[in-house]
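Dear support,

Our group has been running a series of protein-ligand predictions, and this particular one with zinc ion is the one our PI (initials K.S.) wants archived with full inputs and outputs. We had some confusion internally about which version of the output was final, so please treat the block below as the authoritative record. The input we submitted was:
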Amino acid sequence: MTDGQRITAIIGLDDTDHPEAGCTTHSFDSLLRTISDSNMFEVTERRLVRLWPFASRRTRGNGALSAIVKINSDSAVELEELCGKWFDELALSISKHPDEGIPASPCLVISYRNPPESWYWDSVRDQVDLEKRKSEASEFGLKIFSLGEGWGIIGASAAISWMPNQDSSWELVAWRDEVKVGTNRDVSQESVIEMAEKHPETFLNRDPTKGKGMIAPRTPCPVLYGIRGSTCEAVSEAHKWMQEREDVERSSSWAPHRTNQLSDDHLAGICSGTVIMPPSEGRGAHTNLSVISGGCTRQLVVFKEGGHVNRLVRQLNTGDRISWLGLESPDGSIHLERVSVQSAVPRISSRPSCCGRTMRSAGRGQPLRCLLCGENSEKFWMSKPWSPSGVSSISGWYEPTPSQRRHLAKPLNHGIPS
Ligand SMILES: [Zn+2]
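Confirmed final output from the archive:
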């Protein structure tokens, strides 16, 4: 080794998954362990970045990975050789994936300077054109290893261009022993409940409305669990606490990742509009709502799993003014993630009453009449201020239950939209 200057390399990886085999977090862990074990490089931070939820090639959650690695300025060649060798082995293992489904199309990138941040924003908010990103990446001078069409470059380049801030959250990912993959995970409900109590800086551990844990995936992937929280220390401490319990499976390896989860980065901001017709139920029991906003008609959609958001939207009426946070899907409809009612039109309850009974209309152009005493009244409706039923709210905003929210969505108890 020479006493060359220390420099930073950013490494990104995506699209190594197959629905029945592999997991990008696990692949990346093996690469970073290889890098650390070489004793030439120091991995100082791992990052897990969630991207545009409607991306056509997304895997569950659409996550990509990156890591900050400190290297000597004259050892870039060694780093690239090591990465290249690892990537060849990855390609070999991918060639053994089951045939069905979309084949993995991995890409590993290395950069020695900060890439344009627009790569991240374009990838978290919208569809990215593969060829365009490929040419931007090679023009920028990324070192690129890719297989097949190299779809992974979109996520890998986005993951290295994300600039975290002090609000970014953390997820500690723990992986399983290889021989256990595909078997039931041994993570008891009690352990998750107690962990949430003893480690209050962790969050989204459970969905109390469904009484189920949210840390362990249900797919046959190598992940044992992911613990989310506000700091690296909080998730690491919670993991160590879990690993000392009898009712929790031992993990084979683990690592905290800084993430863009709960950032709302996928959303462009609050919109407001007026409901122009009563909500209708669409296919698959989702609810459609037509609103006019900024002079344009927009279709809002809530899925039946949307909990309070769905229940509220079903009770809306023509003329109600609402605000929302949502994501435009490729078909132009907006999938609601949070909603609040700014002002509701009065809900008509009945005609006025007389002699203990509701007055009746005596016909077109005629007044209301009491059928008992014959008293007449001008025609009008009784109304009452509206309060939606079956929903509870934080400061007027409604959100789906925890297990139905996107990884990127900021829960209302982490901040009211503004
Ligand atoms: Zn009367």
